[in-house]
Write a structure and sequence with these properties.
With about 325 residues, the chain is an alpha/beta fold. The protein has two domains: about 1-170 and about 220-250, Rossmann fold; about 175-220 and about 250-320, UDP-galactose 4-epimerase, domain 1, CATH 3.90.25.10. It is about 40% helix and about 20% strand. The chain has a seven-stranded parallel beta sheet, sandwiched between helices. Strands 6-15-10-13 form a four-stranded mixed beta sheet. Helix 1 (about 10-20) crosses helix 7 (about 225-240) and helix 6 (about 190-195) crosses helix 8 (about 255-270).
Length: about 325
């Protein structure tokens, strides 16, 4: 028996793969390697495959049968908000078509357990600052729309026997192990590090939001905590029936972009003065998780805070 992890050579996926392997489980990674790095998953079976390719479903069926796959953790997706605004159709093709192929392969092979990587982007621009799973989902960018469509697809599959948990996680950062650090330079923390390494100031996209310091507020969750949440979800599914199928993953505390830059300043041992740029399209002012459901049902709680995230993210060569 084995667990298939799509996007498992990526930043978040590789942390989950390592935790599964530490438990002695067999892991199969399917990744198109557009952002994944094979060296992150040296002990797993690695299959290079674009889930949205025309032959993806048949190839996935073959992989599942060959390796006796019994469960799937699905990360593989495009995930940049700004890029999704510029290329919406491409996002739908990758994220929705890819999931359809995966669900088709699972149905054909009798694999009935899935943990789905969703996103707080499904909430859009909500009225309240603290978001529960009952908050109305009104995504404001194509990325968030594709994640919500993915949840609907999974809900429909669940009516026909699929056991699934959807994890809506907030802003992920930090590193559980140095060799699994986020190298894609897509999220705030690696973007800050990339700018500093190039001798440039961090950029803040908009300082006129309706937040305490004018910059966007997000709930930053350590990637090691997030990986542990996926294991908790998989174990919960394995234990039997589930009463709830969607959970926020975060800390329940928000931090502004300027607060993150301050935390990175302390971790780097130098003061960082940011440059202020125009807002990016599709960025809501504030997204903070109500994590009471995952605390109570899965028994999961975040162990790390913003300082831990910053300290773990700074590579050895940039430490004070």
């Amino acid at each position: 028996m084995s667990t298939l992890v799509t996007g498992g050579a990526g930043y978040i996926g590789s942390h989950v793969v390592r935790l599964l392997e530490e438990r002695g489980e067999q892991v199969v990674v399917v990744d198109d390697l557009s952002n994944g790095i094979p060296a992150r998953v040296p002990n797993a079976v690695l299959v290079e495959l674009d889930l949205s390719a025309p032959d993806a479903e048949s190839r996935l069926r073959a992989v599942m049968e060959e390796h006796d796959v019994t469960s799937v953790i699905h990360f593989a997706a495009k995930k940049q908000v700004g890029e999704s605004v510029e290329r919406p159709l491409w996002y739908y093709r990758n994220n929705v078509d890819g999931l359809a192929n995966l669900l088709g392969a699972m149905e054909a092979t009798g694999v009935d357990t899935m943990v789905f990587s969703s996103s707080a982007a499904v909430y859009g621009m909500p009225d309240s600052g603290l978001l529960s799973e009952k908050t109305e989902c009104r995504p404001i960018n194509p990325y968030g729309q594709t994640k919500l469509v993915g949840e609907w697809m999974i809900d429909n599959a669940a009516r026909h026997g699929l056991k699934a948990i959807k994890l809506r996680y907030f802003n992920v950062a930090g590193a559980g192990w140095p060799d699994l650090a986020d190298t894609a330079v897509m999220n705030l923390v690696p973007i800050i590090l990339d700018r500093v390494a190039a001798g440039k100031a961090p950029i803040v996209f908009g300082d006129d939001y309706p937040t305490p310091d004018g910059t966007c507020v997000r709930d930053y969750v350590h990637v090691a905590d997030l990986a542990d949440a996926h294991i908790a979800a998989l174990d919960h599914l394995g234990a039997g029936e589930i009463a709830e199928s969607v959970f926020n993953v975060g800390t329940g505390r928000g931090a502004s972009v300027l607060e993150v830059i301050d935390a990175m300043s302390r971790a780097l041992g130098r003061h960082l003065t940011p440059e202020i740029a125009a807002r990016r399209a599709g960025d809501p002012p504030q997204l903070v998780a109500d994590v009471s459901a995952i605390n109570e049902v899965l028994g999961w709680r975040a162990s790390y805070g913003l300082a831990d995230i910053a300290d773990s993210a700074v590579p050895e060569g940039m430490r004070p």
